[in-house]
Amino acid sequence: MILIMKQEVTESQLQPIITTIKEKGLDVQINHGRDRIVLGLLGDPEILQNVSFQRYDSVERVVPITNSYKLTSREFHPQDTVVDVDGVKIGAGDFVTMAGPCSVEGEEQIMEAARMAKAGGAKILRGGAYKPRTSPYAFQGLGEDGLKMMRKAADAHDLKVITEVMDEGHIDVVAKYADIIQIGARNMQNFRLLEAVGKTGKPIGLKRGISGTIEEWLNAAEYIAVQNNFNILFIERGIRTYEKATRNTLDLSAVPIIKKLSHFPVIVDPSHGTGVWDLVAPMARAGVASGADGMIVEIHPDPVNAWSDGDQSLNEKNYLQMMKEVDILAEAMKKVNGLSEEATSLAKN
Ligand code: PEP
Ligand code: MN
Question: What tens digit of pLDDT does each residue of 31-72 get?
Fold first, then answer.
């Protein structure tokens, strides 16, 4: 349930309401919106039903949130949430690119990948040190050594770091080196892991599960949000369908759907979303046009010899070309968004 307060509400009007909420054993999230305060109430639905908040003069509207994800929903937070990754803002209007290899393979490789990423205009370096591999015989990642190499390469090129954590036991070490903690597709519904990363307070890049529905994905985000962590990025990385021409089917309709239902930014991953390097740029362009707030893309100094996901990794020349195209479209999207804002305010008149 959410309480939308009157615009002119004062602190002394707010306090008794918050006291009542807490006395009933409910939790409250106080959200300072653009022009009014919204209180999000969480707890036993039966208790919620039996308290009447409409009787408070300072409450303008009581809105029951019927879906199971509440803090993640647009109803709870009507404005877009901007996730601030140590100064790099995601969801604030600029399209943000995260680029790097699938796996950290060594000091030289990640340093070169960071140089490439920066040259194309990426703000964040991606790379895995703990790798979820389909086969237990495949390269599993360099672990903490890989994290150190990645941090060093990112710092040398003024980039932030996104990297995956696969189990709870590695959260501390990953949080030490990463600016964004990635939850991989295979762990989208690893609920204990979601709660534990939520507690770090760090930005979390939540990949969509291989067979994750939109509703399951939103609920996965809710596990993070209930830890009072509102730094969530939804990453659409393709879902498994009957189609074999691509590794996964990049579901770009998820971008506007998530943006309608939630307030958190959405990132597209055209690399895992296609699995084929020459499909990456077209789908990155489509990702910009779909309204995504950024993308995560695999690049490699020598894709042919990459230790993982070489088939979908871009070399420097192709990456730089793609980034030029993406920049043009991202600028165009700012104009398009301006037009839709104008149209919305006209529609309200
Ligand atoms: C990755 O980013 O390299 C990765 C393993 O992604 P996903 O979890 O989407 O498969
Ligand atoms: Mn990969």
Answer: 887 778 889 888 887 888 788 888 899 999 888 888 889 899
127 Cβ closer than 6 Å to some ligand 1 atom: no
pLDDT digits (tens, 9 = 90+) for 238-273: 999 999 999 999 999 999 999 999 999 999 999 999
- Closest to 16 measured CA to CA, from 53, 45, 43: 53
Q: How far apart are CA 61 and CA 287, in angstroms?
A: 37
Tell me which residue has tokens 């994750």.
212
pLDDT number for residue 317: 98
pTM as predicted: 0.92
Contacts of 77 (CB under 8 A, 6+ apart): 31, 33, 38, 71, 263
Query: Does the pLDDT value for residue 348 go beyond 80?
Result: no
End-to-end CA distance of the chain: 29
Mutate to test the pocket of ligand 1, among 161, 163, 164, 314 (most ligand atoms within 8 A of CB): 164
Q: Rounded to the nearest whole angstrom, what is the distance from the C-alpha of residue 179 to the centroid of ligand 2?
A: 19
Structure tokens at 101: 């290899």
Q: Exposed/middle/buried for 32, CB within 10 Å: 0-12, 13-18, 19+?
A: exposed
Distance CA 215, CA 226 (A): 16
Q: What angle do CA 136, 219, 209 make, to 5 degrees?
A: 30
pLDDT at 48: 82
Neighbours of 81 (CB within 10 A): 18
